[in-house]
């Protein structure tokens, strides 16, 4: 793709570059006014986008049903507006109703899904025998089964981890460290690809690499 | 008492480390290494699934990741959408992030066939933003039309031919979620486990915490981070940003390994000196 | 009359009822309950849209306070934030195709969003260098598994030694599986128990319990 020539696009990509460098001045130098400016610009645009999208979504989800005579949609609109009493101490109790609705529905929905997916599914996954009974598959099966049982034992807090119970919980701790170390390794991939993306954009705008 | 080299190394100003990382990340863009990327089974599973699908199938493309994570997930999104469009699979897009319009615009610009070869309303639709998280996903699983009354552009849902074929989760051949958080778990709970719809994820690297659900506990495939994007680009024969970014990943990861080794060698040497 | 609605029992009852309807609907096919569950879920989705604005409402109050009090080194930035936010919101509500809104969304928001998210990359690097010491068996396992995954993720791992991607792949697909499964199971069990406590009115934190 050739380097942009449209003045609006060029002004945009250069503004993005300056804001990126202003933000990175915080880590590469120290907290500067440039960083504070970029920080507040980010907050302002984030808030504006959220409000615009929220209003548009509300309009598209409720306008049609209301114009078609389904007045029941007024109830969630009123409940939603009641949430804005929360910052005001004397009226805060009113906001508890829309919150109760969101929490109640969310909890009911979450519980019914968690039973099968997270409890039954995970236990079944741990105890299902390998489909292809090769030595490496059997090793993997027993390794993950022992890892699963021992790391689950670590989360039993109603019995002290002493005596015979000390050994499986210790192994469980090591297994959890293996999992968390793996998670850390993937976190590094994520953070580095984000940073690499910014470096790539900087080089593109400066014309050092093709756009 | 003067400090040893190891103590000096441990006390180095963190801004030196930051500059080192920042500058070294520039190098692979100037001198690409272009090392080959091996395709993993979790990525191949999605490719094989899409290869079995065709013009009569409908795929959901759910956007649960923001613009901030583009560097990680955009290559995968573009590669998978290219594959879907090549196979003429119908696509329904909706999402849960307020900035997803930018994501859809980015996909449209990088997959031009979506707008040139596909007819909006018949071959693809963009339903817009949805609040409500898991509640919304649970509701969509049983009744899409109860949630969406119109698409992003205000067209009533009953005027969209594609949406007449989509009433619930069971009408989708594949549900793809582009995820930076826990939306994949909601889809697993309410779409895959409850309704039997195959669910796959295009996720950031940390989404490997959902590997326990692969392949038989609700998650049929997962593209892990920018590496997953590079792998998928290789599979469809259309190399792009994912492959380019892997060079920077090589340099950064090597730097991390060196940092860990130096840190621990320094730690051991400093302990010996103290003894 | 309002004193009845202020009672926490009424709020807990509402939570329990709407949650109970959703649970009942999942396990029993009773049409009136299914219809009621659909209605309350739709209502919750619409109410959630309003929740987007609540955090912003609070942020505007805080920055207005900074301007009123002329907080040193802060109030000019608060003025800029509020002016830019109000301007963009009005323009965006009028038309999202407007050049100012579009430009701000495409170039200011996109670049800053990615940039702030990527800031943590620096911190994780310095944490690796300064804090990742193999002081114990657990720390050693954590560091080694992290390093193996890094060498698996980056193709350069295979260039260094052909065994790294193989071992790293095993750690990712099998080694970490037991631990991650446990976290999923424990998370699920915790969610179920906490959920039932919430629906039964034993948890008060979500509404600021008094």
Task: Give an overview in words.
The complex is a heterotrimer of chains A (211), B (275) and C (210). Chain A contains 6 helices and no strands. Chain A has 211 residues and is mainly α. Chain A has a domain at 129-211. In chain A, helix 3 (74-82) packs across helix 4 (92-127). Chain A is extended and about 70 Å long. The termini of chain A are close together. The relative contact order of chain A is 0.06. The model of chain A has no long low-confidence stretch (mean pLDDT 93). Chain B folds into 2 domains: 5-31 and 255-274, no CATH class; 41-239, 3-Layer(aba) Sandwich (Rossmann fold), CATH 3.40.50.720. Chain B is built from 13 helices and 6 strands. A 6-stranded parallel sheet of chain B has the order 3-2-1-4-5-6, with helices on both faces. In chain B, helix 8 (133-142) packs parallel to helix 11. Chain B is elongated and about 80 Å long. Chain B starts with a helix and ends with a helix. The mean pLDDT of chain B is 94. Chain C has 210 residues and is mostly helical. Chain C has a domain at 1-91. In chain C, 83% of the residues lie in helices and 0% in strands. Chain C has 9 helices and no strands. Chain C is extended, with a radius of gyration of 26 Å. At the A-C interface, helix 1, helix 2, helix 3, helix 4 and helix 5 of A face helix 2, helix 3, helix 4, helix 5 and helix 6 of C.
Order of helices and strands of chain C: HHHHHHHHH
Helical coverage of chain C, percent range? over 70%
Rg of chain A over CA atoms, rounded to whole Å, is 27 Å
Terminus-to-terminus distance of chain C: 20 Å
Shape of chain C: extended
Task: Write the element-wise H/E pattern of chain A from the N-terminal end onward.
Answer: HHHHHH
Oligomer: heterotrimer
- What fraction strand of chain C? under 5%
Could you list the spans of chain A in which at least 5 consecutive residues all have pLDDT below 50? Answer: none
Large-scale geometry of chain A:
extended
Largest interface: A-C, 116 and 118 residues
The helix tally of chain A amounts to: 6
Structural class label of chain C: mainly alpha
Radius of gyration of chain C: 26 Å
Mean pLDDT of chain C: 92
Task: Provide a compact summary of the structure.
Chain B is α/β, with parallel strands linked by helices and 275 residues long.
